[in-house]
Structure formats: C-alpha cells, structure tokens
From TrEMBL:
PANTHER family: 1-ACYLGLYCEROL-3-PHOSPHATE ACYLTRANSFERASE-RELATED (PTHR10983), LYSOCARDIOLIPIN ACYLTRANSFERASE 1 (PTHR10983:SF16)
SMART domains registered for this protein in UniProt: PlsC
Lineage, broadest ranks: Bacteria, Pseudomonadati, Pseudomonadota, Gammaproteobacteria, Aeromonadales
SUPFAM superfamilies referenced in this protein's UniProt entry, alphabetically: Glycerol-3-phosphate (1)-acyltransferase (SSF69593)
Provenance organism: Succinivibrio faecicola
Domain Phospholipid/glycerol acyltransferase: 89-231
InterPro entries according to UniProt: Plipid/glycerol_acylTrfase (IPR002123)
Keywords: Acyltransferase, Membrane, Transferase, Transmembrane, Transmembrane helix
Protein name per Swiss-Prot or TrEMBL: 1-acyl-sn-glycerol-3-phosphate acyltransferase
Membrane spanning residue stretches: 9-35, 123-141
Gene Ontology MF term list: acyltransferase activity
Length: 305
C-alpha cells in the first residue's frame, strides 16, 4: 500500500512500526518471564504460557500487517495445505534471511501453536527481542570453534542438552519447534567454504532434528518441511523488506510422515544415526532441486512480461 513511497521514508516507517511492535509485545513477555522464575508453580506457568501464546500471535499478526502495508508482495505458495492443530509440531527449513522468521507467521497464519526457534546464543543480547525469546522458552544454541571443542570435549553435548530441554517443554506445553537445519543463513561464500554439494543450500546438520524426533516423535502431530526463495532479493532480503522492495516470495510446504523409520535413539544407535543423517541429506537434495524449479518458474514468468 505504501510501497510507492521513497525507500528512505519506508525504511523509517518500518523501523518505527517494527520496533514498537517488538517493544510493546516483548515488555509484558519479559515481565511474565520474571514472574515465572520467581513463582515456579504449575498453575502460574500454565497461565503465563497461555498469555505468551496470545502475545506471540498478536506480534505475528502485526508483523503481517506491517509487511503488507509497506511492501507490494506477491506470494507463490505451493505444496500441502496447512492443517489447523493445537498439538506440538516441528518445522524444518532452509535459511536465507531473518525474514524467514517473520514470514513463518505469514505462511502458517496461526494454524499451528507458538513457534519456537533454535537460536544462536548471541541473539539473546538483542534488546527486548532477545529477552522476550528467552522468556518464551526459545532454545539458544552455542556454536563453538573446533579448537575450543578439542580443549573441552564436554562442550559438544551442550547443544544436545538444550535440545532435550526444549523438547520436554513441547510435551508439557504444545508449541512448534522451528529448526533451520543448515545452522546458518545461506550465502555463496559460506557454501563454498563448507564445500556444499548443493547449489542453493548449506550442508544440513541433522543432530538437533534427530534428537528432537528421538525425544518427542510420539508427541508430534506434524513435521513440516518449508522451502523459501526470494528471487528478487537474494543478497539483502531483510534490508530490502525494510525499504519496501520485497516483490516475489516463493514458499513450499510439505508435510513429512513421522513413521517408524524416523523413531530411534539418535545419540546411542549408530546405525539409526547414520540412516537418519542420510534421510536428512535426501531431503536436502529434493529441496535443492525444488529451489532450481522455483528459479526456473520465476525466470519463465519474468520472460513472459
């Protein structure tokens, strides 16, 4: 609606609106987090979880409104229809930009429980948003360099312990656990450094997903596989959104079956760990081919104009 305005003006509008949305929603979340810490009773925790759920949905709703207000977005959504559920779910996805987090709410539109992301521990220090995510029970993962892991091997299990704790919360309080399986946002430079065998993806890291499904596979209603592609905004998608320049958004959502082949002990069963890792790699091969098709569809549509 306002995408006709000059980019600096849209940038200012988005900075104000998005900041206000974060501050207004994050402040009560942080206060509730303090109350939950001081009064760790089940009744209090249940009330706070329900309140946070509605606060989170309000944040998602206003994000959608802000994006619609300042960007002329054309959505291209394919794949399976998204069912409405109140039970815990897992979403896996490729990771292109911070926009992936905002667009997750636009794609699922409240049909699934509150989304919780595996986040880098450094993000906890973002004003308001970081502490709000902590209060929501987001799992924060630390990425240690190889040198540090060699000096202190015990650090290897830290992320596993965090994943297990997050899974236990999903059993008690239904939520949707979002896992960007690549562990970082995709860039050609990162792909080259990681010697990725894929054209449009980083190599997947199966451990967190494997542990999550091992821990709570029986409790999960749906396992969603999401693929994002922003053909007009491949370098700085978030900045482009802030300036009102997001145009085409391609999203594919597939519902994956959680059958017996995905249920096992990822940490202790070496054969299951190998099989599960190969399964995730096969998903990434399909996702890479899907991104190729999305690019071809975009170029075909562009050539017709």
């Amino acid at each position: 609606m306002l995408s006709f305005l000059p980019s600096p003006i849209i940038l200012l509008i988005n900075c104000i609106l998005i900041s206000l949305n974060v501050i207004i929603i994050a402040t009560p979340m942080m206060l509730l987090g303090i109350i939950k810490f001081c009064l760790p009773f089940d009744v209090v925790t249940v009330l706070i979880e329900k309140t946070n759920y509605h606060l989170y949905r309000t944040w998602v709703f206003f994000n959608r409104c802000i994006i619609r207000l300042t960007n002329n977005v054309k959505w291209h959504i394919s794949g399976d229809n998204i069912p409405k559920t109140k039970k815990s779910c897992i979403v896996i996805s490729n990771h292109l930009s911070w926009l992936d987090i905002l667009f997750m709410g636009c794609v699922f539109k409240g049909n699934i429980p509150t989304t919780k992301f595996f986040m880098k521990h450094s993000l906890i220090y973002i004003p308001f948003a970081g502490l709000a995510c902590y209060a929501l029970g987001m799992p924060f993962l630390r990425r240690y360099p190889k040198e540090k892991l060699l000096k202190n091997p015990k650090l290897r299990t830290k992320d596993i312990e965090t994943t297990k704790a997050a899974c236990k919360r999903l059993i008690k309080f239904p939520a949707t656990l979002i896992n960007f399986v690549e562990g970082s946002r995709y860039t050609k430079e990162k792909a080259k450094k990681a010697k990725s065998p894929y054209k449009y993806l980083l190599p997947p890291k199966a451990a967190s997903l494997g542990v999550a499904i091992s821990e709570i596979g029986q409790e999960i209603e749906y396992l969603f596989d999401v693929t994002y592609f922003y053909p007009d905004n491949q370098k700085k998608a978030f900045v482009d959104m802030m300036k009102g320049r997001i145009k085409n958004i391609y999203v594919n959502v597939d519902i994956l079956k959680i059958d017996e082949s995905l249920k096992g002990n990822y940490l202790e069963d070496k054969q299951f760990k190998h099989d599960f890792t190969m399964y995730v790699r096969s998903l990434w091969e399909r996702k890479d081919a899907l991104l190729e098709r999305m690019l071809n569809d975009y170029e075909s549509e562009k050539n017709k104009k």
